[in-house]
Q: What sequence folds into this?
């Protein structure tokens, strides 16, 4: 029973990881930039949802539209003002920039909203139904379903629409994309915006069961980095599968070892996979 | 360096590795910016426009190494060629024109571009360029790494494209073939033009015969 419970919660967590990781991998795939501000942007998404609930009683699931749109706008702005000037810069400069953005956002949040963890209780979700001895946490199920649905929508968008194909073209061959007359600045802004919107929605989704504080993003984003690398940097489907694997492994491991050590499992998988498949589990080597 | 191309011409730029041929094409396409001088199309300055605006004006480059999108199908690659708005409106017509020029691409329409042979990838790159509705098509080393039979086919197709009214600027190491089919040619050495003239006339030039053809 314990194992079943662990499998379920692992799977549900994996869904959230996937939405966070998909945003990260999209940004990396298109712009070749590692967005270290991803976690703090998720935290912003959580606060958007939190304040809408506290100040105006907005249902957290309705607030997803707001946290997604606000983070999309923030992403486009960050890209245009801060990231685009360093796109041709050496990697360590880009890294310092996104890390710096993250520090600014976190400390701004600390200054404005203090370090206290804040929680939202949604009345109609307070009771967790039991099915066959397993506790089913409704907000986690909702988070899982919405995450996977959004990931699927994003996948279809990238695969089928002209704009989505242009985004993929940029990630497959930058010079080729310039050659066919794709407006790079537009694609970069869009990819960064969409990546941030993903994490904004993910933030909103966890608010009903996860306390918000200015440093909360770190918890999710470290996992998301592991997921992105495991899935193959820039590989969309890979990120989704790796997210579910990491979620399951972490949760099942917590049954056998102290919960505080569960991250050891994640990093062990990480190191072992990279030892044998440096391109990630599902990564194809790109020319 | 000064270079001009008239409408309807095939113009070749030949020269050794590192002479600056690729840089020349990239400067026209806006991928590198000239530190001085100007690039003009029918009197309009191109050298300050972003790359996608240059493509919109019909100045299209088929890059060295093809630069196709390997994880997309042949058809998707071609459709992406029709990215400029006016090209997008003519997508179906352009597509049938490319199918007509390269029947093999039609057969492989659903295949991933990365799985094509070198020659087919080159055809795809040229086809993708045509989808952008070029008035000037710039080809960078289209014969590179291809078998002689395929090279012949590619050059024949280039002549056909020119006959349909597309001006061609060809950069090649295959001096014999490219000058042979060009109206005019330029010889580039260390970033400067050292010789210019009619294509066949350059082929007869003593400097070219000794330096490039080894005759």
A:
């Amino acid at each position: 029973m314990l194992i079943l419970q662990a499998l379920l919660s692992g799977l549900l967590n994996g869904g959230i990881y996937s939405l966070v990781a998909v945003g990260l991998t999209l940004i990396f795939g298109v712009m070749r930039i590692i967005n270290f501000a991803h976690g703090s942007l998720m935290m912003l998404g959580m606060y958007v949802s939190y304040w809408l609930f506290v100040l105006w009683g907005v249902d957290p699931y309705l607030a997803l539209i707001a946290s997604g749109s606000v983070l999309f706008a923030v992403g486009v702005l960050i890209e245009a003002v801060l990231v685009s000037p360093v796109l041709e810069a050496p990697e360590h400069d880009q890294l310092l920039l996104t890390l710096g953005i993250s520090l600014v956002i976190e400390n701004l949040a600390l200054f404005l909203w203090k370090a206290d963890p804040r929680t939202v209780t949604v009345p109609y979700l307070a009771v967790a139904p039991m099915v066959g001895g397993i506790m089913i946490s409704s907000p986690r199920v909702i988070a899982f379903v919405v995450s996977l649905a959004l990931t699927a929508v994003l996948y279809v968008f990238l695969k089928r629409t002209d704009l989505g194909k242009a985004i993929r073209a940029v990630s497959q061959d930058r010079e080729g994309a310039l050659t066919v007359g794709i407006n790079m600045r537009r694609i970069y802004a869009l990819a960064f915006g969409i990546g941030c919107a993903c994490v904004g929605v993910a933030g909103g989704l966890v608010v009903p069961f996860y306390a918000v504080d200015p440093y909360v993003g770190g918890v999710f984003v470290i996992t998301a980095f592991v997921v992105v690398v495991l899935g193959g940097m820039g590989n969309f489907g890979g990120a989704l599968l790796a997210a579910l694997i990491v979620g399951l492994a972490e949760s099942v491991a917590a049954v056998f070892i102290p919960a505080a050590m569960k991250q050891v499992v994640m990093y062990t998988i990480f190191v072992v996979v990279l030892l044998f498949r440096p391109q990630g589990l599902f990564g194809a080597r790109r020319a | 360096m000064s270079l001009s191309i008239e409408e309807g011409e095939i113009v070749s730029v030949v020269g050794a590795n590192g002479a600056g041929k690729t840089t020349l094409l990239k400067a026209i396409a806006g991928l590198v910016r000239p530190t001085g001088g100007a690039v003009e199309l029918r009197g309009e300055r191109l050298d300050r426009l972003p790359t996608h605006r240059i493509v919109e004006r019909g100045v299209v480059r088929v890059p060295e190494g093809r630069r196709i999108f390997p994880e997309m199908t042949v058809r998707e690659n071609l459709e992406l060629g029709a990215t400029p708005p006016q090209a997008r409106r003519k997508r179906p017509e352009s597509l049938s024109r490319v199918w007509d020029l390269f029947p093999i691409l039609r057969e492989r329409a659903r295949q991933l571009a990365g799985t094509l042979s070198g020659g087919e990838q080159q055809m795809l790159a040229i086809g993708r360029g045509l989808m952008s509705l070029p008035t000037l098509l710039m080809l960078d080393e289209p014969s590179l790494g291809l078998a002689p039979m395929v090279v012949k086919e590619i050059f024949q197709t280039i002549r056909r494209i020119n006959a349909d009214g597309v001006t061609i600027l060809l950069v090649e190491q295959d001096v014999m073939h490219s000058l042979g089919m060009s109206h005019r040619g330029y010889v580039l050495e260390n970033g400067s033009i050292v010789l210019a003239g009619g294509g066949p006339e350059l082929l007869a030039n003593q400097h070219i015969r000794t330096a490039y053809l080894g005759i």
User: Anything to note?
Assistant: DSSP finds eleven helices and eight strands in chain B.
